[in-house]
From TrEMBL:
Protein name from the UniProt record: JmjC domain-containing protein
UniProt xrefs under Gene3D superfamilies: ARID DNA-binding domain (1.10.150.60), Cupin (2.60.120.650), Zinc/RING finger domain, C3HC4 (zinc finger) (3.30.40.10)
A Gene Ontology biological process term: regulation of gene expression
SMART domains reported in the protein's UniProt record: ARID (SM01014), BRIGHT (SM00501), JmjC (SM00558), JmjN (SM00545), PHD (SM00249)
SUPFAM superfamilies registered for this protein in UniProt: ARID-like, Clavaminate synthase-like, FYVE/PHD zinc finger
Domain PHD-type, chain residue ranges per copy: 327-377
Keywords: Coiled coil, Iron, Metal-binding, Nucleus, Zinc, Zinc-finger
A GO cellular-component term linked to this record: nucleus
Domain annotation JmjN: ranges: 23-65
Amino acid sequence: MGRGEHKTNGGGSAGPRLDIPMAPTLRPTKEEFKNPLQYIRGIRNQGYHKYGIVKIVPPEGWRPPFAINKETFKFSTRVQSINELQRRHIIAAKSQAFSRKLDAFHRSRGQKPPKMPIMYGQKINVFKLYCAVLKRGGYESVTQNKKWKEVGKLVCSKHKQITNLSFLVRVAYERSLLDFETYVEECCEYLKQDTSHLDALSHVCVSGDRVEEKPSNGDSVLVKVEAEELTGSPMKRPRLDGQGEDTELEALDGLIGLTTTANGSHPMPVKEEEEAGYELEEAGEEKVKVQSKVEMISDVNGMDMDFIDHMLPKGAADNEESLNLDEVFCELCGGGAHEDQIILCDKCDKGFHTFCLAPPLESIPTGDWCCPHCITSATDDLAFTEGSDFTVEEFQKMDKQFQTTWFSSKGIANKPTWWEVEDEFWDIVENSDEPCEVFYGADLDSGKLGSGFPHERHGFTGQYAESPWNLNNLPKLGGKYCSMLRHVTDNINGVIVPWVYMGMTFSSFCWHVEDHMFYSINYNHVGNPKVWYGVPSNSALAFEDVFRNYMPEQFKLQPDLLFQLVTMLSPRILKSASVPVYRAVQEEGSFVITFPRAYHGGFNSGFNCAEAVNFAPADWFDYDQDSIERYREYRRNPVLSHEALLCKVCEVDESPVTAASIHVHLKEMILKEAALRQDGLLYAKTFKKVSCTSCNPGSGFGDDDAECSICKQYMHLSACTCKCTPGYSVCLEDVERMCSCDPSDRTFVYRRTMAELEDMYASVLSRLEGCDVKKKMSEEFGKYVSESPRRVREAEMWSKAARDMLRKGNASKRGVEEHIEDADKFLWGGHAMDEVRNLVGELNGVLEWGREISRCLSSARRGRKLDFVKTNELMSASPKPLDVDLGRLEVWVSDSNSLSERAKAALDPEEGKELAFQEVQELLKACNRCPVIPCLLGDLSAAVNTVEEWCGEVDEFLRQKAKPPFSALTSLSKRGLAKLPDWTVLEKDRLAEALYDVEAFEKEAEATTGGRAPTVEDLERLAKAGRALPVMVPSYAEVQRRLEEVRGWLEEVNDVPVEDEEEEGATTELVEDLQESKRSLRSLEERLSQREVRVKALRQHIRRGERIPCDLAGRIEVLRSQLGGLEEGMTKLEERVRNLRRWVREKERERKELERMEREREWERKVDECIMGELHTGKWDEASELLEQGMKASYDKVRLSELVAKIRALVSSLISFGRKFYFFPTRSWGAKKGVRAKRTARRSSRMRTRLRFNNTSGCEFYVSRRVRQQFAIDVQRELTPLVEFEMDWTSWKLLL
């Protein structure tokens, strides 16, 4: 189908009826398609963002495989009521009103309002349940007519999973609504019985929401109270002339005559004669009739809540206990300050700050007010409910069945086009009262369930797994044109990790903008098109105004309705309000991109699987601050911290493209933060720099940022806390609403100073080409970006006092601490406070000097050692920075210096003045006793430890039982000579003696083994001498190896047997018994094998003995003579084995020939019996087996041909039998009435059949369907062994 072309389907229209322009369809080239973010930046610069959405068709050949397994991918769904998408606000208002009246009814009886019924985890809407029962005549009528199952299907989307649905729905109704229904019935019955006191209303006629005045003519006027349709405007309460709403309610309560008993029992109607009644000014002669309950409340889709309100007893809501306002806290922020701005919910009596609400209230509203929690609980059941779980194949099959059923009822026989689905979708949304529920598998986590794109997370590799257009890779693309989300370390579902969407016919995604006004991209993997509608960002405010004007009551209850994603609004309404709307039809294999702040929504024209994710090029920052302000206004938690992300990008992203986009936003953030900190000086007196603003930091991105208790936004740069409420913190924009505590109890915490932010801005400017950073900074910030002249003067005065304190010295510790505390108010500032920061560092050094002196004295008192260098450095300060008592610290430092000189002399002695090791050990003990560690104590101790360790190694080396290698001895000797100081050590002489013994053995071994083959006696003598050495030398190992090799060879040679004995009873002569001959053959073969093994072993021993470097010539000659005898005996044995094998083979051939001749004679006998006798089906198996045996063994051909003829005769007779009795109908086709019609049916039920034998055509005849079925049952049992049947019973092929 070409672009812009539409085909008609059946009787449908030739194109869409919804007159909306199409969004652009872009087809990038392969070169443009390489970098998605660069391409999207290009189309934005070309102005395509003015459409809000665009469709992108990849180049030809780019089509990633669908990586989801349709059989195993199982997902959960949501149930969408399509007919309620645009009218949900009306249903919500009615449901909330009904819930209030129902709660008031139960409270009037002294009862706690019942909880919302739940079935299989789904909350049941009591308003919908009440209306469904009332529409069917009430509880008694539904019970008698057994319609509870029908009611259950309307109110519970999981009705297919519930086996006892009728019982559960009836019980839920009895517990929650039956008393209320009974009460309403009694009130209505009383009004019909006695209405004389209603004459005051005779001039009023109520119909729908209109109030008309009727002339008083003496006749009765019928007052018909009807609930407005759910699709209409809310019902207005009829008022009496000259009276307000309260008077009217009291009057109508009195007219109905309701009272409440003292014990809270069910209120009953009371006669007017028993009551005082009401005197109305304009009472006339006419009487008023009130219709029945079903007439008054006429439809599931219409319920007059004001009528129910009139029927409730007076003071039903007055039974509440009064609350102590001194104990009321805001449920949102947890604070109790600003009591004059705390408003109480009229339903749950909980308190809320007006400025904590979403959006904040400018003043306390008049009349009844419900909190967001109560509104949410009342409207939760109107949101999309949880549906069933499906696999992809099950979901696709279900959608196909639904689409066929729905559109066939609309007269569309074939598969509908997308515009026919569009027309039907909006017709249902705008006009239909008929329930239409569909399933939508939305927001499926691809990280857990699997992505439609190949991805390494699920074991895929290759071109498409690494493609930048793969939605698993796109949010974190790097390079020059990168996504800002690559700096977010968390895998946020739906933002960074794609969501998968399984759509079916009519399933919709309601109007919304993306979180943080991100870009979004959607790819349709498989299935039918998705139809999108988009509104450009420059018309977003106009779009929101249309929404608010269309459903003002719902926005009054839920100001954040546009965040809920549960409401659709027809493009026709938007277009009539001059809001530009564009349509995009996303076919399989194409992308749809939405631009920031572009509202979009749409629906699916059939089954499809799509995948979507967000991304954020650098130009997205143009919208993010607006999204944060929007979150702040509606008190909603953002997905991530805007300030944290902006700072992270500024720190690590070196791209000039990014710098060009973000430097403006960084400047705005710095100026805003500077202004907020200046204003925050009035609300806090303590300032503190922290590494994170959160009390409980997490490991994720932005998890170390606290959340403002009022506006719910992340506080990355700064926050304000108070001692009165630990863990309670607010941002600087809401600090004035924090609490009523004194500023001295509050602490202003900040993560970065303004100087650090200025440096960050300068770093970003340095990435811009041709930018003069100093000039730009001076132009945009001036000399003091965050400082007022007054703060600068105060900082200078503080600096002067600090310099005087440092110059004079001997300052008091308390004075220095107080001066540093005074500097906290300057440290958060910009570079104008750099001198203050430097002086604070120096004053902290002074305090640290005093703390180090105290630690030294305390450590010395506890017996701990003092560091020589550190202690000398502390004592070298002049003058002393602080006025402290040094104690004996000076004496200890002098002793330490003296010992350090002696240690230096010991470590590097002069020539000719060698020290004994014992003297050095005594010096080390004196150094260890000194409180201040001498500077060379570590070197001296290490040298002494080295000598002691070496001496221990030598002693252990010489005493160990297992001899170490000679290399260990030489290594130990060299290490002692190289590392030991020039001290006198006895172990050096012991090592020298061991080395002399080893050298003597080496010379003797070389003389014995060098140049000739030693005898066994020579090797034993050398081995004995080597065992006396303290180490294992290489020559001893070689001698020992040779000796062990000779001994092992001699043992192996002695173990080899030379001759074997003849087995008892074994014969080598040929005998007539074949079996005995075989046994003799096996015995000879075993003896031959054993002799071969012995010959092989002797040969190996001879070769091995020749290679051993030792004198073994005599022994080898003996082995060679033995080998000759064995080889001669083996030759004779081989000849005997060959003769016996030949004789056995000849006897085997004679035996087999005799057996074959016997089998052939037996076969001929059985064939003759079969040919001569009568062949019937009972002997068919035997004849078939004989035929198969004869053909396989090539027996007598004459007998084979006669047997085949006999079998053919049997087949012919059986087929004739079947044709005679089964191939033609034997029953009459019925009475003569309608003969023609029956003949036609008979002809249509037959089919032409040709009978074939051995692929040879036979006669043609007709066979009815019934006859064929009967033939299949009866005759096939006889012919199955002979004939091969095709499935349609139209041809048979003989097996022979």
